[in-house]
Amino acid sequence: MTTTTTTKTNRRWGRFALHYLEMIIAMFVGMFALGMLQSAVGLGLSYDEQPELAYLAMAFNMSVGMAVWMRIRGHGWASTLEMGAAMFVPIVPLFPMLWLGLIDGDVLMMVSHVAMFPLMLAAMLRRLDEYAACH
């Protein structure tokens, strides 16, 4: 009986980890694909000249990639929006720091990207049963 329980638990966490990896891949696909499309139509933004706008566009692109994949996988809108919010939440403390000159655009990008991963994980842990289930 312990082996069965352990196997089920391992499978559950395996599905959770796989979904986390899928979200990271979907995030990067959205960022690169939509970013290249923006550049191709002349809407590319400079991270040096317009770090706020460039970050918001990139966060939107990443959110779209994840939202598309989550909807394909059958997730509801609440969890999809929470995952997208993880792309935007890091700006709350960072934009004022940028405006005050405490950080520059490069630091904004680096810190926000690093913060996204634990925020995505927190959003997923909040709905553990949903993310660890088969889709």
Task: Please outline what is shown here.
The protein is mainly α and 135 residues long. It has 6 helices and no strands.
Question: What does it look like?
Answer:
There is one protein chain. By secondary structure, this protein is an all-alpha fold. It has 6 helices and no strands. The longest helix is centred in the N-terminal third of the chain and has 39 residues, at 2-40. The chain is elongated and about 55 Å long. The relative contact order is 0.15. The mean pLDDT is 90.
Radius of gyration: 17 Å
Shape: elongated
Query: Helix- and strand-based class?
Result: mainly alpha
**How much beta, percentage-wise?**
under 5%
Count of individual beta strands: 0
End-to-end Cα distance, whole Å, is: 26 Å
Characterize the largest beta sheet: strand count, sense, and whether it forms a barrel: none
Range of helix content: over 70%
Which stretches are poorly predicted, pLDDT < 50 over at least 5 residues? none
**H/E series, N to C?**
HHHHHH
- What number is the mean pLDDT? 90
**DSSP summary: helix tally:** 6
